[in-house]
Structures are given as structure tokens and as C-alpha cells.
Design a protein that fits this description.
heterodimer, A: 188 residues, mainly alpha, 83% helix, B: 111 residues, alpha+beta, 3-stranded antiparallel beta sheet, 4 helices, 55% helix
Chain lengths: 188, 111
């Protein structure tokens, strides 16, 4: 592998990061090769490690810092995908990669089912509300009971839904930070 | 070397090196690698993060018809570095107490 191949490979591995991040990293390593000098090119490539090693460190650090920044823009949720893909692209043991996928999958399922529970409660509450109007024909008390219950169910459902959304966001950021650290530790 | 330098300790080393004079990436990497044995690719992510946190700033200087990017401490970086220095002295003393407890009148397990 020569310098050009190294840099191309590095750029390819970083392609999912924001443009600016890629440019900064690429110009840093271009300068690095320039400083090392043509005569040391081969040695520099050896001591830098494989492009995926270098990329893993950059992506890992990126995942951690983005997870720590408070304002979460929608775009940044892609970072978790970038991190997962980077873990698979880096020289990492397959069992670890598989367990990460399984953890992500099960965490996702738990959060998703909680979310569905919340949404279902809201729908059930709304249905009860309509039944309440219907039940007024059976008596004022019965109608009032149904309407009161429906309000309670909607409130519980809304709490679960909102709570789950918040939990999901926090979990995602936590996982991202954890995977970032894992990436850095795993890459040599 | 049985002990690896990473995280805040590596940050402190980088800040310490740059506190005496600005340096460019390659220079800084060679120095860190020779002294600490940190891998050559470990430094870029550290520099990037320190820049993001405004602990370092960078400027370009022409050299041999291209640019050299120098890194230097910001005021914020200087303040954090002072904290690191104080923390390090305490930490170092604590570790020494544990490791050299035998020489400093600590419990001698042989007796």
C-alpha cells in the first residue's frame, strides 16, 4: 500500500461522517505524510496502522463528542449507524460485533414495545371517551364514569409515550458513547 | 510498557507539551509517541476534540510551499491545564503512596 492508496482507503472509511470532518481528517493526514517526507512514506504507513484502524479512532471519537453535545439535531441520529458500520469495518472480533447488534436489537425492541403500549393506551382512551358519550343514555353517572376513565387512560398513555421518546433518545446517546469508546479501545 | 496513557491523562500530556510552545501535528505526534508509546493515529482524535472544546486553537503557517497547521493553547486550555497539573500532583502522590508503601513505613507483609 502506498500513500495514495492509504489516503483513498481512509477517505472511503470516513465517508459517512459529515463533509467537514472528513476534510479535516484528510488534510491532517496529508500534512502528516508531507512532514514525514517521501523517504519515510512506507514506514509512516506501517506505524499509522491500517486505514480502518485510523478511521475507527476518528469515528469513535466523533461518536463520543456528538453524543455529549446537548442539542440533538435529527441528522445526528445517523451517527449511531455510522458507529455500528465502523465497528464492522474495523478489525474487530466477530463475536463482539454480533453481540453489539443483538444488544441494539433488544434495546430497540424494548423501547419500541413501550412506545406501542403508550400509543395503544391513547387510542383506547379516545375510544373510551366516545363510549362515554354513548353511555350517557344509560345514566348520567355511567357516562361520567366512562369519560373520567378515558381521560385517565389518555393521560397515562401520553406519559408512557413521551417518557419512552425521552428514554429512547437518552439510550441512543448512551449507546453511541459506549460504542465510540469501544471503537477507540479496539483499534490497537 | 505495562501502563497505557489515554483519556484525560493524554489530554494533559498534549496540553502540557503545547503549553511551552505551539507545535504542528507531526512534531507533536513524534514527541508523544517517543515519550509515551502512544500509537501514531491516537493523536488526531485528541487534537480534534480539544479544538472542538476550544481548549486549543490552530493557525496555518507556510512551509516549503504548503501549509503547516500549528496548535496552541487557548486561555480556556491554559486554565484547564492548571487544574490538570494540580490533579496530577495529587494523583501521582497517591499512587506513589500505594506502590512504594513498603519503603515508606507501610505494612510489611513479610513480617
Amino acid at each position: 500500500m502506498n500513500r495514495i492508496e492509504f489516503m483513498n482507503s481512509l477517505q472511503y472509511k470516513l465517508r459517512r461522517l459529515p463533509y467537514e470532518e472528513v476534510q479535516n481528517a484528510i488534510s491532517y493526514y496529508e500534512e502528516y505524510f508531507d512532514e514525514a517526507g517521501t523517504e519515510n512514506e512506507a514506514q509512516t504507513i506501517v506505524s499509522l496502522g491500517s486505514p480502518s484502524d485510523v478511521a475507527s479512532k476518528i469515528i469513535g471519537e466523533y461518536a463520543i463528542t456528538v453524543a455529549e453535545f446537548k442539542p440533538v439535531e435529527k441528522k445526528k441520529t445517523n451517527v449511531i449507524l455510522v458507529t455500528v458500520l465502523a465497528i464492522f469495518a474495523s478489525p474487530i472480533a466477530l463475536p463482539i460485533a454480533i453481540s453489539i447488534l443483538l444488544i441494539l436489537f433488544s434495546v430497540g425492541l424494548v423501547i419500541f414495545s413501550l412506545f406501542i403500549t403508550g400509543v395503544a393506551s391513547i387510542i383506547a382512551g379516545i375510544a373510551t371517551l366516545f363510549m362515554g358519550f354513548w353511555a350517557f343514555s344509560d345514566g348520567f353517572g355511567t357516562g361520567l364514569f366512562y369519560i373520567g376513565s378515558s381521560v385517565l387512560i389518555i393521560a397515562i398513555g401520553a406519559s408512557i409515550t413521551l417518557g419512552t421518546l425521552k428514554l429512547g433518545k437518552t439510550t441512543l446517546l448512551g449507546l453511541q458513547r459506549w460504542m465510540g469508546k469501544l471503537l477507540i479501545r479496539r483499534s490497537k | 510498557m505495562a501502563f497505557a496513557v489515554s483519556g484525560a491523562l493524554l489530554d494533559a500530556c498534549v496540553l502540557g507539551t503545547l503549553s511551552s510552545a505551539p507545535a504542528y501535528g507531526y512534531e507533536l505526534t513524534q514527541r508523544t509517541q517517543n515519550t509515551l508509546g502512544v500509537s501514531e493515529s491516537a493523536l488526531y482524535p485528541v487534537l480534534r476534540r480539544l479544538l472542538k472544546d476550544n481548549l486549543l486553537s490552530s493557525y496555518d503557517e507556510p512551509h516549503d510551499g504548503r501549509n503547516r497547521r500549528y496548535y496552541q493553547l487557548t486561555e480556556k486550555g491554559m486554565i484547564l491545564f492548571q487544574t490538570y497539573v494540580e490533579d496530577w500532583q495529587v494523583f501521582k502522590a497517591n499512587i506513589d503512596t500505594m506502590i512504594f508503601s513498603n519503603n515508606q513505613g507501610g505494612l510489611n507483609l513479610d513480617e
